[in-house]
Amino acid sequence: MKLKSIGKVKGLKNKRVLVRVDFNVPLKDGKIEDDYRIKAALPTINYLLTAGAKIILMAHLGEPEGQIVPKLSLKPVAHRLALLLKKPVNFVPETVGYQADKAIKKMVAGDVVFLENLRFNEGEQKDDLKFAKRLAAYGDIYVNEAFSVCHRKQASISAIKKLLPTYYGLELVSEVENLDKILKPVKPLIVIMGGAKISTKAPIISKIYDSADKVLLGGGLANNFFKHLKLEVGKSLVDSDSEVYIKKFFKGKKLADKIVLPLDVIISDKDKQPRIRKVTDVTKFDTILDIGPETIALFSSYIKTAQTIIWNGPLGKFEEGSFKHGTLAIATAVAARSTGKAYGLVGGGETVEALKETKMEMYVDFVSTAGGAMLAYLGGSPMPGLK
Ligand code: ADP
Ligand code: MG
Question: Which of 85, 155, 163, 204 has CB 3.0 to 4.6 Å from 136, enough for a Cys bridge?
Answer without folding.
Answer: 163
